[in-house]
Amino acid sequence: MQRSAKDLWVGLFVLIGALALVFLALQAANLLTITWDKGYQVSAKFDNIGGLKPKAAVKSAGVVVGRVESIVFDDKSFQAKVVMSMDKRYAFPKDSSLKILTSGLLGEQYIGIEAGADAANLAQGDVITTTQSAVVLENLISQFLYSKAADGGKKTD
Predict the structure, then answer these.
(1) Nearest to 68 by CA among 108, 105, 95
(2) By Cβ atoms counted within 10 A, which residue in 8, 9, 62, 96 is the most buried?
(3) What DSSP designation does 121 have?
């Protein structure tokens, strides 16, 4: 069986197309980020991170300014320690605050950073102390049901 040049080109084209699809799938799932400059790392502790995952976005005003590098449990403070890699193009004041937010009703979680007013900026290894944990839907529902049960189901007219 003889192979022609067309078969080689078709095979190469299919291979390139498959690689492009894999690349797009990894980019869409936030599993692949291509950065040449690491930037600077900062960390923060949260009481509850909800469904936050490594490689999640760190956003300010809707713009991605960094990524979550790692999440570990601190057995001394019983909190989750989140290490973030911030893009070096963006400088935030040291008194900035972090919130774990959800994109959409049931979307993926990300960290929102709100800039403070301090004159000094965050640098490599700094710890952000002002944090707000994730809002867990199950906790909200149980609090609502508990408050209704405490009222005894009384109607207020």
Answers:
(1) 108
(2) 96
(3) B
